[in-house]
Amino acid sequence: MTTVCRFSRSVDSARYSQAIAIRLMIALQFVCLPTPPALAAQATEPRHGVVVIYDDAKWSIKRKNPHLIVLNCKDESCGGASSECMTLQFDNRADSYAPGLLTQMNKVNRKFIGIWERNGQRLELVDKPEWQTLNHRSIALSSLRYRLGNRVKRIWSSQILAQFGTTGLVCESDEDKYPVANASWMLLLQSILIPGE
Q1: Strands 123-134, 84-90: parallel, antiparallel or unpaired by DSSP?
Q2: Which helix (DSSP H) or strand (DSSP E) does residue 12 occupy?
Q3: Is the pLDDT reported for residue 14 higher than 70?
Q4: 13 by DSSP, 3-state: which?
């Protein structure tokens, strides 16, 4: 009798453990479900068909010029109101290879620094143009810093090689917002769809 009792207890115990395990598995299925994607919207540049996919809970779009996509941050998670990005496309097939693109970015930076200096203002090169890899793409990145009244601002530029030349983002934010803003800019850059890729 005692043996039977012990046996039935161990069976009950095994069933109880099994029931707990099943409940845990069910609960984990709900916990481990992929989180729903952020509200995705998209904007297309008509000349080359470059598409930017963005979270419209964080970004709003301005289209004063049909060939430019201007994104304004409306949330602190992307740098707040000081954070803004603009897409740019360049038809520069001659420079559509790695050395040429870095050379081009260096020329553009020097040109802007010269223009600012002639106007009695200082534009400082913070990050000289360099290559990074993002999602198997080679991307040229650079940043500049300037002062606007009492505020220090950062300009960040990026270019991706494309069949027609290059595309990318030029973004700006307050310097103190730059680390957070830059992480959001990289996500925007990652979201860009280029025809022919």
Answers
A1: unpaired
A2: helix 2-31
A3: no
A4: helix
No. of helices (H) and no. of strands (E), the chain = 3, 9
CA 10 to chain centre: 56
Find where tokens 């601002």 sit. 153
DSSP symbols for 105-144? HHHHHHHHHHHHHHTT--EEEEEEEEEEEETTEEEEEEEE
Mean of the pLDDT values across residues 8-25? 44
**pLDDT confidence of residue 91:** 79
Q: Give how far the C-alpha of residue 113 lies from the chain's centroid of Cα atoms, to the nearest Å.
A: 26
Q: Which among 169, 115, 100, 167 is positioned nearest to 146, based on CA atoms?
A: 115
Averaged over 146-154, what is the pLDDT? 91
Would you state the structure tokens that stand for residue 178, as one six-digit string?
């730059």
Lowest mean per-residue pLDDT among 8-22, 30-44, 127-141, 174-188: 8-22
Model confidence at 21: pLDDT above 80: no
